[in-house]
Write a structure and sequence with these properties.
Elements lengths: L8 H8 L3 H9 L10 H14 L5 H8 L4 E6 L5 H13 L6 E6 L3 H6 L5 E4 L8 H12 L3 E5 L9 E3 L7 H17 L1
Parallel strand pairs: 1-2, 1-3, 3-4, 4-5
Helix pairs in contact: 1-2, 1-3, 5-8
Length: 188
Amino acid sequence: MRHGSKPTIRDVAEAAGVSLTTVSYVLSGRPGGNTRISQPTQDRVHAAAHELGYVPNQAARGMRRGRTDVVALAITDLEDARDRDLATAAASILPRHGYQPVILVGESWRQFMLAGGADGVILGSVPAERTAADLETMMELVDRGVAQLLLSDTVPPDGVDVLAPGTPATADALAGQAVARLLSRLRG
């Protein structure tokens, strides 16, 4: 490993005395194809990864798997109680289901989502009416099969789930329900 560089899967393989394929299987939790990987070998790989401080590159992993395991929350203002509750609920709930939340404030959500930054997006409750650019982006994401949930009292474009902000009794309950509905759509 070069000084100052992050450890790679190749460094882990060298330190553990195994092949790149073995490291890949062990660290991804896959069974090992046609070859069973012994527990001592798995332990060596995990120990080498830990000792080196190896952290998988999520972008590369996402490209191989065709998904990011990221859910974006597009909100307008963290000072808005409903948007803040949505962000808090998402940060708590999503990791328990294998998704990393990314909170996007303002208009940047469109570029982020069109660039493939997340598997799904929850669009916060403000503004009440979406711009033409928002609607165009939402339709493009529908065409790409990206899961979307819109917190709104208005009818969304076809292919976008909607949850009316007044449905649950509290803002926290609304946020929890929004996250649950998007997770259902991601799995469905």
